[in-house]
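User: Can you write out an input/output pair for a complex, sequences first and structure second?

Assistant: Here is one pair. Inputs:
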Amino acid sequence: MKQFVIIGNSAAGLSAVEAIRSRDKDSKIIVLSDEEHPSYCRCLISYYLAGDVKKEKILYRPESFYKDNNIELILNKKVTRVDPKKNRIVCQDKSAFDYDSLLIATGASPKFPDTKGIKKTGVFGFRTLKNTMDIDGLLAVTKSACVLGGGLVGLKVAYALKKRGVDVKVIVRSNQVLSQILDPEAAGLVKKKLEDNGIEVVLGEGVSEIIGEEKEIKAVKLDSGKAIGASLVIVGKGVSPNIDLVKNTDIKTGMGIISGNTLATNIENIYTAGDCAESFDLTLGKLAVNALWPVAVEQGKVAGSNMAGEKIQYDGSVAMNSLEFFGLPTVSLGIYNLKDLQGYLELKTYDRGANVYKKVVLQNNLLVGAVLVGNINSSGLFLKLIRERIDVSTLRDKLLEDNFGYPDIMDLVKDKEKLYV
Amino acid sequence: MRSFMKKLYYDVKKCLGCKSCELACSLAHSLTQDIFKAIKEEKKSLPRKKVHSSKGNNYPVSCRHCKEPKCVDACMAAALYRDDQKDMVVYDQERCVGCWMCVMSCPYGAIRPNILTKLAIRCDKCQDKDEPACVKACPTGAIIWCEEAEVKV
């Protein structure tokens, strides 16, 4: 009987498990997680901290999922080494597991800058349910907090802390929030929304030191010399792929573990998916890590299917982010900011009165990116156009119109429906 | 019991773009189910179907209940899932946080955000009724409610 081993129990790991089980009811599947909880909605931890989501709704699958699907789930188990020659993985506690087919879906971990004082108690990353519960436990005695970094995780945790009555400031090194997903115009609209709702954002400032005792933070010192009082610090400086377990093996790595177009690594029976995987990015035209929930699910599905014997090709990933703060929906797809890029064309509209900003990025008549704020109704159509690499030259004047709809693209897309007769 | 195999089809030649389907859909999903009261509801019911015009024709657009739904893959709250028995994508509103990942991933643009309720607006095929409200409301018979094998092209 074949033995599948899945390292990682979140979006990519679980979707692979489901893809395998839908094709193969009998083989043994072992899922290993270094966390203490069964699979939960990782992107919802900020909502949980805010009190918007109750604990019973945070599980991604019902508790009976593993038993119902005959899956052996092993929690609190950190895999430290993969041995492709022996088809074996080894864990921190020296236990080992053999596999016929392996999926590495180890995810990513928060990056911590080497700022002085960053190791003090009271400084947290924000990635896991455990992080969330640890922070939650401190809120009764927390009056003020600083969030380092203006990315999506940083802003979401800032929202949660504010909702819980904590005075929160977000310290951002760059000159805009969300610099990894939005252009300065869109970021300005989001920032204003946050500030209108009591979340202070400090731009263009680095943090030089976290001041206080080892076990009690007092303040955050900025590069400018100014100090901001805070007893809690959350670091939201991005994540890096968890790939230590394949260091010094034959498995190829770059920023993440490199996957081919079946999501296998360079070793035939080892696959990778999700935040630890570096795969082809459709809009960039090169390998990239897109550490995003929906990308992890789609990659896990392809990897799992192929592990179970299918021959599915993965076209590649597209950066895609959807967010909403205080009633302002925002979507970013693909290439969002040209900065010094050459050979692209931007089309934009900005309706100040309605607070609606829309932008599309074209390259040789292909849509390769979009930013939408205030009205995101076209975002799914844009993603379709990007994914299928459709020539949009006939649509140029329509793309940014409010009534842009599926009928405008239906003759151009690959799959033809029989819905309209 | 009503057939789970029935789907919505559209005879484009008959669609006038009158938006009676939009109105009926909003009403059917309102709290009061009364048109004069429904327009005064604090969080107004919005249509799950929108009529789009392109090249002189009108096309009602709503959820296809895809076999491999992108919205389900993207849903980070596990609020959307596919029920193969009912042949539809089901939405557990209690789990939804309003992140709009489903809006971003629907290749038909058939899901829209309701900012006030923080819920996704998408067709539920009027589960509690004998047939969808849009079918009954269409004055020209452009909306067809039938099984796939019965569609006449």
